[in-house]
Design a protein that fits this description.
Blueprint lengths: L1 E6 L5 H9 L4 E3 L24 E6 L10 H4 L1 E6 L2 H12 L3 H21 L4 E4 H6 L1 H10 L21 H20 L1
Parallel strand pairs: 1-3, 1-4, 2-3, 4-5
Length: about 180
């Protein structure tokens, strides 16, 4: 089985990936590559033919452009509210606030479009992961007999000054897209 953890930078989805990678039947590709053709899935199996679930995390729109993969793969979507995301993007990824806003809002739009094409997917908020609740949902969705280990050490949200108007505008975008993603 092929799985994509589709998310945005600063979402906390690495927690899900790290936890799944500890599961005995899951293997994280960590390719940071692009999936433009069905044959690109083969690279997810490199060195891990034993795994039942081969997965990768995609954080940018250009990484996933093959429409046929929507039918061939499973998807877990992870999104996080903008205040913590912006702090992460600015502190750890070097984004300027305006650039963080553009990346985040365009990525949420793309994730929402992807969710519409994958009705059997799982949509998680970062808080679902941080509490551990989301891991059981993923376990059931993937048909895993054993639970996904919970490997979370909380990290404080960086104290970064982000313009209030950007956070407010991004929160409205987040709320709108989350609502659509959860209704499908």
């Amino acid at each position: 089985m092929y799985l994509f953890v589709a998310t945005h930078l600063g979402s906390g989805a690495s927690l899900l990936c790290e936890s799944m990678n500890l599961h005995r039947v899951c293997a994280w590709h960590r390719g940071n590559g692009s999936y433009k053709h069905g044959s690109d899935l083969v690279k997810m199996k490199d060195g891990a033919n034993w795994a039942k679930v081969h997965f990768d995390k995609i954080t940018h729109n250009h990484q996933f452009t093959c429409p046929s993969l929507y039918r061939q793969c499973q998807f877990v979507y992870v999104i996080r509210e903008p205040a913590a995301t912006f702090a992460n993007l600015i502190q750890y990824k070097g984004y300027l606030p305006d650039r963080a806003f553009l990346y985040y809002t365009f990525r949420l739009r793309r994730l929402c479009e992807m969710v519409k094409k994958t009705p059997k997917s799982v949509v998680l908020r970062a808080d679902d992961l941080f509490s551990g609740r989301g891991l059981e949902t993923v376990q059931k969705s993937l048909g895993l007999r054993d639970p996904v280990p919970f490997a979370y050490t909380p990290e404080p949200v960086p104290d970064v000054d982000v313009p209030h108007d950007l956070v407010t505008s991004a929160q409205a975008v987040y709320d709108r897209y989350l609502s659509v993603m959860l209704k499908r």
